[in-house]
Write a structure and sequence with these properties.
Layout lengths: L2 E7 L3 E8 L2 E2 L6 E3 L2 H14 L3 E5 L6 H9 L4 E4 L1 H10 L7 H15 L12 H23 L5 H31 L1 H11 L6 H10 L8 H8 L7 E2 L2 E2 L9 H17 L1 H12 L4 H22 L9
Parallel strand pairs: 1-5, 5-6
Antiparallel strand pairs: 1-2, 2-3, 2-4, 7-8
Helix pairs in contact: 5-6, 5-8, 6-7, 7-8, 8-10, 10-11, 10-12, 11-12
């Protein structure tokens, strides 16, 4: 009989819920510590249960230890976007929220929706992922402090200048560490060279893709576009044909692809011709840019799958 486990993850704890044949599993512990010790207690229980699927929500990184530990034990674990579970709960009419109820809802989501298993980030990319995200945070802070400068007194401007200078030095350290992580791994060094062979893909975009998109090269173009969040979704009803919009996905990756697409529209012959053709058909600039982001991602996905460097022939 199939069984499903949902784990509500917080910084300190793992709250468990389970279903077997549509009925709650009562012999699972309710709460365990989100530590190596807590997981060492949980893994044998789940191995003995042999669940069809274990689902965790992405919670800003607190789920990494549990997901990696369960995957290493050979258990079928998938990390999903919390938004998916929330929308599922609303559709089921479940409005109350506690950790215990959330765990049960995640287990029900696993049973009814059965999200597809995907590759989890490799252990080697953990440091790289943290550096990529830290770089994004530092860039955002530098931008915010710079924008504040024109709104404050001259005395406070000097303090902001000091802080911005410190942030820029920290950014240099993070980017040095990023490059060290790439160069230390033959696998990532080869992938980095492959991705950067594309005109418009620079060091930052390449590192972001390596760290935050382990699925690159393993999915078809429709699924990889939806995963990143650059696939347009229909908004049609009856005779109404609404404007299609992108939604969901991984915002950090979209930001990186957006900047790469802007460069590609000028310097990549394939993207430039594609953009000009869309604009010639009357597409708005932003729509054409998003289409170029999707085109670029499709090219990179095909290159990663074939392990082949940039070829300017249209894809």
């Amino acid at each position: 009989m199939e069984s499903f486990v949902g784990i509500d993850v917080s910084k300190a704890t793992l709250e468990l819920g389970g279903l077997c044949g549509g009925q709650p599993i009562t012999d699972l512990p309710l709460v365990l510590a989100n530590t190596h010790e807590g997981l060492s207690e949980l893994v044998p229980l789940l191995v003995a249960l042999a669940p069809t699927l274990i689902v965790l929500e992405a919670t800003g990184g607190y789920e990494r230890l549990a997901a990696a530990t369960l995957a290493l034990a050979g258990l079928p674990v998938v990390v999903v976007n919390p938004r998916q579970v929330r929308e599922f709960g609303k559709a089921m009419g479940r409005m109350a929220k506690t950790d215990r109820l959330d765990a049960g809802l995640i287990a029900l989501f696993a049973e009814r929706i059965r999200p597809e298993l995907r590759a989890l980030p490799r252990f080697e990319t953990d440091d790289l992922s943290e550096c990529v995200l830290r770089r994004r945070q530092l860039v955002d802070m530098i931008t915010a402090e710079t924008n504040r400068r024109s709104l404050v007194s001259r005395a406070l401007q000097r303090r902001l200048d000091v802080h911005v200078a410190w942030l820029k030095r920290e950014l240099e350290h993070v980017e040095t560490e990023l490059q060290r992580c790439i160069e230390a791994s033959p696998l990532w060094r080869t992938r980095d060279e492959l991705l950067q062979s594309v005109p418009a893909v620079g060091q930052r975009t390449s590192h972001t893709l390596i760290a935050l998109l382990p699925e690159l090269g393993t999915l078809n173009r429709q699924r990889i576009s939806a995963l990143v969040g650059v696939a347009p979704f229909n908004d049609d009803s009856g005779r109404h044909r609404g404007v299609r919009h992108i939604k969901g996905g991984r915002a950090t990756l979209r930001n990186a692809l957006y900047m790469a697409a802007l460069v590609g529209i000028r310097y990549n012959p394939v993207l430039k011709a594609f953009y000009d053709r869309l604009r010639g058909k009357g597409k708005p600039p932003k729509v054409a840019i998003v289409a170029c982001m999707r085109k670029l991602l499709t090219i990179l996905n095909a290159m990663a799958r074939a392990n082949h460097a940039w070829d300017p022939a249209p894809t």
